[in-house]
Specification:
Elements (H helix, E strand, L loop, with lengths): L6 E6 L5 E3 L3 H4 L4 H15 L4 E6 L15 E4 L7 H20 L3 E6 L9 H10 L2 E4 L2 H11 L4 E2 L20 H5 L8 E6 L3 H9 L1 H8 L4 E6 L4 H12 L3 E5 L3 H9 L3 E4 L14 H8 L3 E4 L3 H4 L6 E2 L3 H10 L1 H18 L2 H15 L3
Parallel strand pairs: 1-3, 1-4, 4-5, 5-6, 6-7, 8-9, 8-11, 9-10, 11-12, 12-13
Antiparallel strand pairs: 2-3
């Protein structure tokens, strides 16, 4: 099975039914999962001659008519719109996979979250049973899939977004190292946090006490990029009360690019006790590195793969102090990290990884 001329349908969950060949629907969507697991990979594959179609099935609807029988159908997770609706929608994905497989279409299940830990467990197990091939975004999740369902999986990383940024580290602050380098007394250290899910913001709040203590000796300016929801707004207000100059920005590609360019360090706290967060991909860490900004990241498995090019641990103050003490090492790690990303996480590299999954189906 060669890529040129291959027909691939990507099943997405946008709570409405449609069939479209406009890949921008996913490539420019606010949901990272739609951009990184469907839109951008499909665009990279289109450059290799793959004919891509997006299919969304609303809860309660049947499989829409497709323009031609696909060679491959890629299924991912259903999103959450409420328990009853989600369960019905999951059955729509399963019904579609069963129908297409009976008609000769190969089924790929791309599992990028620990669905075994929530109400979608039965959906995941059935899709893993149906799938002709399984892909995932992290080594730890691949291990979990093997343990839970006895299935091997292809590791397909999340692709990079945007242009490579110039590696930079201003090393501002009131630490002794910053003063020795002539930084103005009282210059705030510019920190950035970004995310798309409430669970990731709760991880930031787990670092709140440490950051509050740091703010008493080091002025901090924290930019938070996430869509405005009451939980986030309340958390931002609490951190402001800790003496941190914190600003909340709604997520958008422009906001992300601007905030990344204007920060000194990127905070990526994690909650290793959360079974879903523990298996997350490294896409936020790679986004920081690609923008040329140094990540201070929590210790989940996917981040531990980058300990030589980032700071990974559960004490953010230790990471920040290390960065301020080693500005040249920070820059060296940023350059090394960007070189690694260019080799393995570029659109071309990720397109090739998806291509290997698809071409492997022809060898069944």
């Amino acid at each position: 099975m060669t890529l040129a001329g291959m027909r691939v349908v990507w099943f997405i969950d946008l709570n409405r039914s449609f069939v479209s060949e406009d890949l921008r629907i996913c490539a420019e969507h606010a949901m990272a999962g739609l951009r990184l697991r469907i839109g951008l990979p499909a665009q990279a594959l289109a450059a290799q001659g793959v004919l891509n179609t997006l299919v969304s099935i609303a809860p309660g609807d049947a499989l829409p008519a497709l323009p031609a029988r696909p060679d491959i159908a890629v299924f991912t997770k259903p999103y959450i719109y409420g328990d009853a609706e989600r369960d019905r929608h999951a059955s729509r994905f399963i019904d579609a996979a069963e129908t297409l497989k009976r008609n000769g279409t190969a089924v790929v299940f791309d599992q990028t979250d620990n669905l075994f830990a929530d109400q979608r467990r039965d959906y995941a197990l059935r899709m893993l049973e149906l799938a002709d091939a399984v892909s995932t975004c992290s080594t730890i999740l691949g291990t979990l899939i093997q343990e839970q369902a006895g299935r091997a999986s292809w590791l397909v990383p999340d692709p990079l977004e945007g242009r490579r940024g110039a590696a930079a580290f201003a090393a501002r602050g009131r630490s002794i190292w910053a003063r020795l380098r002539g930084a103005p007394a009282g210059a705030p250290l510019r920190l950035l946090w970004f995310g798309g899910q409430p669970a990731t913001f709760r991880a930031l709040m787990r670092w709140r006490a440490e950051l509050a203590r740091l703010a008493r000796r080091q002025p901090l300016k924290l930019e938070v990029v996430m869509n405005r929801v009451p939980e986030v707004e309340a958390g931002v207000a609490q951190m402001a009360g800790d003496g941190i100059a914190v600003t909340l920005h709604a997520w958008s590609p422009a906001a992300m690019a601007e905030r990344l360019a204007d920060c000194d360090l990127v905070l990526l706290p994690t909650d290793s006790t959360n079974p879903r967060s523990f298996t997350a991909s490294a896409n936020r860490l790679t986004a920081a590195l690609w923008a040329g900004r140094f990540p201070i990241a929590g210790a989940i498995p996917s981040y531990l793969d980058f300990t030589d090019v980032a700071w990974v641990g559960d004490n953010p103050v230790a990471g920040i102090d290390w960065a301020l003490a080693h500005p040249q090492e920070v820059l060296a790690r940023l350059h090394a990290g960007q070189a690694r990303l260019e080799r393995s996480f570029s659109a071309t590299a990720v397109g090739a990884a998806w291509g290997a999954v698809f071409e492997g189906l022809g060898k069944r």
